[in-house]
Amino acid sequence: MHVPDGFLDAPTSIGAAVVAASGVALALRGARRELDDRTAPLAGLVALFIFSTQMLNFPIAAGTSGHLLGGALAAVLVGPCTATLSITVVLLVQATLMADGGITALGTNITLMGLVGVWTGWLVFIALRRVLPKRPLWVVPAAAVAALVSVPTAALAFSLLFDVGGTVDVPFATVATTMVGIHTLIGIGEAVITALAVLSIVVVRPDLVHGARPSLERRTLTIREGVSA
């Protein structure tokens, strides 16, 4: 999903950079409401985890491979605004220090993974959370489905950008079919990783999982009076 330099023309890249900058600015404000003294360290750990796992590629088919995008995972663990910031930091480090994704395409990558990936995953997650049982463990399948949907959606967003400002004349249907098809398979791997990561935390400290907090708030304490002889 890391878009390199030269795939999109200058106006499209600039437009994506403006969208990315605006999204990050709004995320900076929103993250203040999501973080507290307990969860702030988790945001750094999430960014480190995503950075590390993006270095690992798993085979898909015909010589292609995929890696974790991490948008839905980060949104469920630390909230969507903080997730956008975490993904942005990861992409910035990768582009400047590791040549993974182009410098001129940094805004495009942030838009695709830090905005589309994160917020698509979050919207799917909260929609599922409303219909699933209100228990912390049910955030695990909701997070998995959110991750599965977020990856091909980001791929579709890239296909739309490429149709607008791609530097090579390729039909939209061809690009979209290829990108969405491959990234649907990647999304399956992302769903598995997301489910395992969320499960490992929610069974121990559900209060640290941003997406599980509403189910914890619904719990009530019942004290039964003892019967004396």
Can you offer a commentary on this structure?
By secondary structure, the protein is mainly α. It has 8 helices and 2 strands. It has helices at residues 10-34, 40-53, 71-78, 80-97, 106-131, 139-165, 172-202, 213-217; strands at 58-59, 65-66. Strands 1-2 form a two-stranded antiparallel ribbon. It starts with 9 loop residues before the first helix and ends in a 12-residue tail after the last helix. 45% of the residues are buried.
Task: State the separation between the terminal residues, measured CA to CA.
Answer: 70 Å
User: Whole-number average pLDDT?
Assistant: 88
Give the C-level CATH assignment: Mainly Alpha
CATH architecture: Orthogonal Bundle
List the secondary-structure elements in sequence, H or E: HHEEHHHHHH
What is the helix fraction of residues, given as a range?
A: 55-70%
**Major beta-sheet overview:** 2 strands, antiparallel
Rounded to an integer in angstroms, the radius of gyration calculated over CA atoms is 19 Å
Number of helices: 8
Total number of strands: 2
Query: What name is given to the CATH topology?
Result: Arp2/3 complex 21 kDa subunit ARPC3
